[in-house]
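Checklist before submission:
- one chain only
- standard amino acids only
- sequence pasted in full

Submission:
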Amino acid sequence: MPTQALVEYGRAKVNLTLRVVGRRVNGYHDLESVVSFADCADRLTLVPGPELKLGTTGPLADACGVASDNLVLKAARLLAERVPNVALGSFTLEKVLPVAAGIGGGSADAAAALRLLARLNGLMLDDARIREVALQTGADVPVCLSSRACDMTGVGETLLPLSLPKLPAVLVNPRVPVATKDVFGALGLRHGELLVGATDVIESPVWPDEGASIGDWIEALAQVPNDLEPPALRIQPAIAAVLSALRAGPGGLLARMSGSGATCFAIFSSAAEAASAAAMIAADHPAWWVHAGELS
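Returned file contents:
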């Protein structure tokens, strides 16, 4: 068993589309979402040891809240309940992604914790116990476990890999948290209610095949919105300002909100145009969190 520090990264999750199909009788929402991952990430370190604990560092460490409520510890505890004599240790989270931001930062951190514990204990990521813990920790944790582009359906448990090209992009968060539960609450679905018609539920979108161009993907993505964007805009009007800033950048192909917000993204024709737009937005809005990079 390794005794040195182990390191994993929790990459930001970006919902390129997000359909809310309906709400189950048990209250969970059925979704269909094309999920991609950005090249910005939190850094999670695990030092094996007898005590399970978590420390936070980094520019956004203060936003993490109480450590005992962190999804990293929740995932570790749930795994310990299922794997006899599981080896644990001390986690250190370097937090650089904004929280309550619609990019799955907490879920990505929990997934990174599960990858670290799998390595430490000689477990495969497709181990049924790992998969069960991922879903029980949070709906976005299963997709973050592999951090690969996919079509995510159900409550987050069904994942179909997609061959997504590298997409030059800019991510922007106005540094205002938006609670996911509030956005879903504003959507106003009753238990057992469908948001779309039965035909729409049966006919899943057909996404471009491997080797498709960025243009092919933009054309397909533009036809499927983020259903959470309108209620999120009602809750947090700052999202409208972010979208306006992203759409003002030359070379922008598609701009919308990710997840339940408030982070928004724009896909650009080239990395140079993305970098230029990010620099302009950062200069105009120095208090915002801005990242230029790639989605894949």
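Reviewer check: The first helix runs from residue 71 to 82.
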